[in-house]
Write a structure and sequence with these properties.
alpha+beta; about 250 residues; 7 helices; single chain; elongated; about 30% strand; eleven-stranded mixed sheet
């Protein structure tokens, strides 16, 4: 039988990174000038955040599209099932269940920004592992122009490295103090999309997905926890909850 230690340890896991990544998508949308956008995007930007960006844990983009189809309108008078285009455009993101060790360059960057040297970690009895996660972002709309505008807005925002668009912060409480750790999106100057558009009897659902490698720290030690942030009250919710609210 394993005897418990005097001080049990906590792990920061990825929940804070998931929410902060969603908030980073929201920041990209806020930087977009609505007056220069297509009609559907202009209306989309006027919505509440929770009706723009939805966090949904699905194994593949196809699974998410399948979930969307479950929330179509009932059969119309012509006996055909119609997709509710009023809910579009829509952005979904999720993190597939896989990760690997991040580069030494990222570890050095975090230690340089935070000042968390090996000596300090030893004193506080905190361990840090630097990992690379994958996030998939899906842009959907009833027209191709709206999908392209939202996708390009995101791509250009994170590609603006001079303004720090390629990174964001996650805050943690460590030993009673608050620390911010930088999370970095890799290779933001290149983009490779996957066309996952779906045909419907009355039209077409245009959709593309794009994957991003995101480097983030995981902390292990006594009294390690995420700092509640006002920015996280934006309402990054799951698909089913928001579609129920948007149902006509």
């Amino acid at each position: 039988m394993i005897e418990p230690t005097e001080q049990q340890c906590d792990i920061s896991d990825f929940y804070g990174v998931d929410l902060a990544f969603g908030c980073h998508i929201v920041d990209a949308l806020k930087a977009l000038n609505p007056e220069s956008c297509p009609h559907h995007v202009k209306a989309f930007l006027k919505r509440e955040t929770k009706q723009q960006v939805i966090r949904g844990d699905y194994d593949s983009p196809r699974e998410f599209i399948r979930a969307v189809r479950q929330y179509q309108k009932q059969l119309g008078q012509d006996g055909r099932r119609q997709f509710n285009h009023a809910r579009l455009p829509l952005i979904n993101y999720y993190r597939p269940l896989r990760f690997e060790t991040a580069s030494a360059e990222y570890a050095n960057f975090v230690e340089g920004v935070t000042g968390f040297s090996d000596d300090l970690l030893h004193q506080t009895k905190i361990s840090i592992s630097y990992l690379s996660l994958t996030y998939r972002v899906i842009f959907m709309a009833a027209d191709k122009a709206s999908v392209e505008r939202l996708l390009l807005a995101w791509h250009m925002y994170i590609g603006n490295r001079r303004a720090g668009g390629h990174r964001f912060n996650v805050s943690y409480h460590l030993c009673g103090s608050e620390f911010e750790f930088p999370v970095v999106i890799e290779d933001t100057h290149t983009i490779n999309t996957d066309n996952i558009s779906q045909g419907y009897s009355e039209g077409r659902l245009f959709a593309v997905s794009v994957d991003h490698v995101v480097n983030a720290p995981v902390l292990y030690g006594h009294n390690v926890e995420i700092v509640p942030s006002m920015r996280w009250d934006l309402g990054i919710n799951l698909l089913e909850r928001e579609f129920d609210e948007l149902a006509l």
